[in-house]
Amino acid sequence: MIYLTRPSATLSLSRRGAGGEVLYNIDIGMRKILNLFFLLIILGTLYQYRAPLGKQFLLLRDNLGAFFAKTPCLEPMPYALGSFDPKFGISQKYFLDALAEAEAVWEKPFGKNLFIYTPADSSFDVLKINLIYDFRQQATSKLASLGIIVKNDRTSYDMLKAKFTALKAEYAAEKNAYDMQVADFNRKQQAYEAEVSFWNKKGGAPRQEYNKVEAERLALEAESKKLQAAQLRINNMVDEINALVVALNRLVASLNLSVDSYNTVNVSRGESFEEGVYTSDGTNREIDIYEFSSRAKLVRVLAHELGHALNLDHVDDAKAIMYKFNQGNNSTLTQADLAELNIKCQVK
């Protein structure tokens, strides 16, 4: 008896129908090939239109996020510590204790837990709080090291402006003198190198000429050290000027002064001065803290950004936690803060 084997990816005889006709089924191997073919077509189409589809996905995600967003205050908002820069010179415990104080600013008058620290929670909706060191804290630390305390008033602005004007003039004079000295040093060094090359080509210099060239070398070394010291002084002046610029521009904004912004020296910055920022893209929520001059200011800026995390807007009361500038000294909510909180938390 001869047994026939069927091809794995062809039509195979299955059974006869009632009228004796032959019925066929598509072989499993052929079905897999067809499924793979259609899958490749779908994937190719998605790849070709990935840009417009990606935009539509983000739009859908944002709309769904808004639709399913929880009303603030119904349950505590989980938060965790994100990036933490040690250049601030504080411990994580110090920062977390300040965060706990900032929580209490909102929770005590409201009579309910609004936030909860969940260090091990990695859920997508956990609020990440980051401590980021950049030019803002660098400027604050520089001024503090010089004994300069910046207050949010016109007197402080006038004092900083006077210091900035005097220091800028001193810097200009020092820089001009330094540039002239460097140019003179370079001429002397070129002459020295030419003289050394001349005598080396002759196989060496007589004792008298050698002593002369050696004296020139020692003089150049001494002058180079003086120039390095002058450069260090100028660099320190630049750091101080730039720190003053950061503080002055901040005061110009917070005091709403009709003056032009101050420019830094040898540095180009397009950033505005913000001590902290709350951001949300519909999926991730973060608070970035950039600058504080004291623990009280740290607690205040944390409380302000936690307010934004509760969807609170800025209020007009200059003493309020939710005022657009961190210029108040109080660590308690004002009536404007409470009114905004009650609106967002739907308290009647």
UniProtKB/TrEMBL annotation:
Organism whose genome encodes this protein: Candidatus Nomurabacteria bacterium GW2011_GWC2_41_8
Database matches in InterPro entries: MetalloPept_cat_dom_sf, Pept_M10_metallopeptidase
Top-level taxonomic group: Bacteria
Residue intervals passing through the bilayer: 33-49
UniProt cross-references to Gene3D superfamilies, sorted A to Z: Collagenase (Catalytic Domain)
Location of the Peptidase M10 metallopeptidase domain: 293-339
SUPFAM superfamilies named among the record's database cross-references: Metalloproteases ('zincins'), catalytic domain
GO biological process, one term: proteolysis
Protein name: Peptidase M10A and M12B matrixin and adamalysin
Keyword RNA-binding attached: no
Keywords: Coiled coil, Hydrolase, Membrane, Metal-binding, Protease, Transmembrane, Transmembrane helix, Zinc
Single GO cellular component term: extracellular matrix
Entry-linked Pfam families: Peptidase_M10 (PF00413)
Coiled coil: 210-240
